[in-house]
């Protein structure tokens, strides 16, 4: 940890002041209010050592990062049957594209583009009694953290302007790959995306993907080792939309980004690291977040490649 | 090695006799002549221990696997400038698709789909005096193996039926992303694809991607550590066309397949393993090869995830 | 008229008994209940002579044919400004495709594919006080026929299963090209499509497109001569989705089809002819209807070409 | 004719001096040398009256306009069988797009986009003994004009830079829809496109499409009445690439444009009119040519709609 700590500090101060050419996401009005000066990092190792710097303890909207936990719960319920509903291939298209859905007859390419996450939400709705509450409880167990919550304002804000996601959900429904009511699926999806965490919380909740022997504080095994490895594989090939190749190339870790500016990356058998900086590059991923992680894995020689 | 050996033997005998639902590639007439009973595996560790079974010593047409070595040489010449000519993102489309080239103005998505490999060949033509000879010598140095050679018959066979590749090359040229003569680029491309190796040779020549300290027998460092890791990242996200996600998910290693039925996979810091079985699944990857590798990384718990 | 009459009778009896390889539209449950034996034809000339045969007096769901009258009213309101919201080019894609909308940033190719008609409905909503009532009144004036009405059951049936249209409307809204509430636009759209007419009524209501000097019984000029000609031009190039070229080629008249099995065709300066037969070919156009019209324009040598 | 003459003169002088926002085609180097001041018009009626103004007697490269005559000859040879090789639907894409060819398995949408014209050339090669000579003789007979010729310089210039067309031809060949040698097909295609005519010649040679009773001076019927009407239908829906709808809408006549800046338009039973002005709009059609024809059909009320 001392080694990581020193390197993280160095990179943090180096990147903190550079010119950030990114822009804050503005298509969700409520998200646009966040100060773009926020910059935080937090690492947690599988030995439960941890270190944070900057705004690592401030909560932010994790947005698409929550797709990881939704997928995890759906995978737990359905195991390999899940892949009949959603693919595991990178899409080569932006996160909210409808193009491929048409040629693929309503089966999203992977669970991390919006269409795929919407199908995952539909799968969860079919399994959960009180979907929003149950999913939140699952996240609380995953992280041993009872303070987690949705941001109702963000959920409502996204709902009001979520025409693209509504188009996706209706489109998939027209192919028969949504089983529940469109409005309920979307409401659940927007709530999941409104989940808030700090970098500290985000790096901790993701440990089940890094630690082969992970069990929750309640003593539950979340995924089998093989399942966890497979989630990591999907994260690596699909976690950054049409910049997944770039992230694998530059950073070399499975990871997931959100338009709130958060990124979590997983080094199997070693650590989880979360970064937050709200300004996004053109592909919708945190500009400073990607830069930080690239420098970090280079200096620690800890890419999985 | 003893551990690997036992597991490889077990899987080999288990898979050898199963019903192979794949089909031999028939679009290159000369390739269709290969017996579909061939099945070989060879592993080489970074400590230079090695083990093979089945037809591991028989030469076959490595086809697209040679794109790895072409990329390596071009990357050596151009370093990061190379990515101005070809991308590093998975394409989400079949290996010989023209669709994305039109929307991307002639810049192929990655160096492992045909369009990308054709651009790589064009880059090499601009650097090499005697392209075919020089590239062969590079492969000989990489593998410390002077017996490597092209199969002229296969190269000619592919040339005669290579209308799709000719379309790709002319199309890219129309966007200005091919600098040399179209016929010379294609002749070079078809020769590179006709390279022949055995599983043994293939697992050995790929060691420079697994071993951080690799130097050739002539004492040359081939790629920097960072470059080698980045080639592995591209292999993982793009090495299996529109089945790259599937391979990452099931096998969990960087790798590359060819329509000759060969696959090479790399475990950084540990080993390279090559498999050969000519019958291909619908995505154009060896059916038994993928099955073998999936079982192998599961039983050895040696996916990178 | 005598000439037309004889030819229509001959073709009617010839086609009535042939094997109809088409199928009734089944995606709108309420439409699937219609008997597929229905077959009617009615012609009305600009001199107001008319002749019908078969089920020419039975009402059916005109569906997409109503897009012609919606376009007409919107064109009346907006004139050339309308083309900022919707194009006038054939799409080369099926009627409910979302593909082009993405590359065209939410501007539908033409007013006769679903996306275009939805935008037209949105334009009308911005102009009309009581949209459904006002549009119905416009149709009544056009046809001097106070018996026209929507079929509420069909409208509700389409609403319940209209996920694709809902996807289209939300998608266009996400690009800003829908100004009103999505649900209101769709409700209006589904009602317009549920309009019912007989062949007789349909051939009569379309006369304003054939007769340069047309004025309604209230003395109103509907479109200028130039506007009417332009609507005919759009009908010819776009009236039959991705079979528009086929219809121009075989029939040679501006026309519009609906999934209810109705087709209306216009011969400028001469006549309007309506045909109804519910079974549709693979492109969604009435099988017997197209066959009838092709034979009719060939025998009367009355294509516009 | 006196009526036409006066109107043509008026429009000619009105448009001659307006600011032309178009640009000369520069992708065929040899074409870029033409003076952009050229502006000519010529009309020929089916009664063989004629009138020209401006540069109506100067030869220019008719380019894609020659696709009309190639289609005519192929249609004569193959009749309806021709449509197994090439479609009759507007493409909705630019003239040299490869996108649809992939989804349509190598069958071009229509004979007037480049891919379609290349297939037509392939069809002709299978029928003609001396293709270039025989096609030229066909054009000479059509026009009763022995002075017609290819421009060898233009043909060679296009050949040297014709990578896109070479891509199209190889791509179609890969689907099996080119039967002859790729280089021979392209050589024939480039020659056909290099045909030169004046507006006067162009309006005269097209009369067979306007006059139902047309026979050549040798006494040959070129197409049946039904075939000629069908060619006109394809011209109307497909003659102007992805601006076909626009031309139908604004001008209202079947017609064909070429990147040399020529346009020919046909009024069935009345006249053919040819316009030439080299500067092209963004869709590749003559800017002044389209403007002239729009004004002409409006003032003469002679659209077919």
Short synopsis of the structure:
Four copies of one chain form a homotetramer. Chain A is an alpha+beta fold and 305 residues long.
What do you see in this structure?
- The structure is a homotetramer of 305-residue chains.
- The model of chain A has no long low-confidence stretch (mean pLDDT 94).
- Chain A has 305 residues and is an alpha+beta fold.
- The radius of gyration of chain A is 18 Å and the shape is globular.
- The first copy, chain A, has helices at residues 2-16, 66-78, 99-103, 114-127, 131-143, 152-160, 163-174, 182-193, 199-205, 225-238, 244-250, 287-299; strands at residues 23-24, 40-45, 50-54, 60-61, 149-150, 195-197, 255-257, 262-267, 271-276, 279-280.
- The first copy, chain A, has a five-stranded antiparallel β-sheet with strand order 3-2-9-8-7.
- The first copy, chain A, has one domain (2-299): DD-peptidase/beta-lactamase superfamily (Beta-lactamase), CATH 3.40.710.10.
- In chain A, helix 2 packs across helix 10 and helix 7 (163-174) crosses helix 8 (182-193).
- In chain A, 60% of the residues are buried.
- In chain A, a hairpin with a 4-residue loop joins strand 2 (40-45) and strand 3.
- Chain A has twelve helices and ten strands.
- Chain A is 44% helix and 12% strand.
- Chain A starts with a helix and ends in a 6-residue tail after the last helix.
- Chains in contact: A-B, A-C, B-D, C-D.
- Chain A binds chain C through residues 97-99, 101-102, 163-164, 166-171, 173-174, 182, and chain C through 97-99, 101-102, 163-164, 166-171, 173-174, 182.
């Amino acid at each position: 940890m001392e080694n990581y700590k020193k390197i993280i500090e160095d990179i943090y101060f180096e990147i903190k002041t550079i010119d950030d050419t990114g822009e804050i996401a503005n298509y969700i009005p409520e998200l646009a209010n966040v100060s773009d000066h926020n910059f935080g990092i937090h690492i947690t190792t599988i030995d439960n050592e941890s270190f944070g710097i900057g705004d690592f303890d401030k909560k932010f909207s994790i947005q698409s990062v929550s797709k990881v936990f939704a997928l995890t719960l759906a995978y737990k319920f359905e195991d390999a049957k899940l892949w009949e509903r959603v693919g595991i291939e990178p899409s080569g298209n932006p996160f909210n594209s409808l193009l491929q859905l048409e040629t693929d007859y309503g089966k999203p390419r992977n669970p991390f583009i919006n269409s795929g996450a919407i199908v995952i939400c539909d799968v969860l709705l079919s399994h959960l009694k009180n979907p929003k509450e149950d999913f939140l409880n699952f996240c609380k167990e995953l992280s041993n953290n009872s303070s987690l919550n949705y941001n109702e304002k963000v959920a409502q804000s996204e709902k009001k302007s979520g025409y693209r996601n509504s188009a996706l959900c209706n489109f998939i429904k027209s192919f028969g790959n949504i089983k529940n009511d469109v409005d309920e699926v979307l409401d659940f999806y927007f709530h999941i995306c409104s989940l808030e965490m700090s970098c500290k919380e985000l790096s901790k909740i993701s440990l089940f993907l890094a630690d082969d022997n992970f069990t929750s504080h309640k003593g539950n095994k979340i995924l089998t080792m093989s399942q966890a490895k497979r989630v990591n594989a999907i994260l690596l090939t699909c976690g950054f939309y049409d910049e997944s190749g770039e992230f694998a190339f530059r950073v070399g870790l499975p990871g997931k980004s959100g338009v709130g500016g958060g990124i979590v990356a997983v080094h199997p058998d070693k650590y989880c690291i979360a970064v937050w900086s709200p300004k996004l590059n053109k592909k919708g991923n945190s500009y400073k977040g990607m830069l930080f992680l690239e420098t970090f894995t280079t200096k620690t020689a800890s890419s999985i490649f």
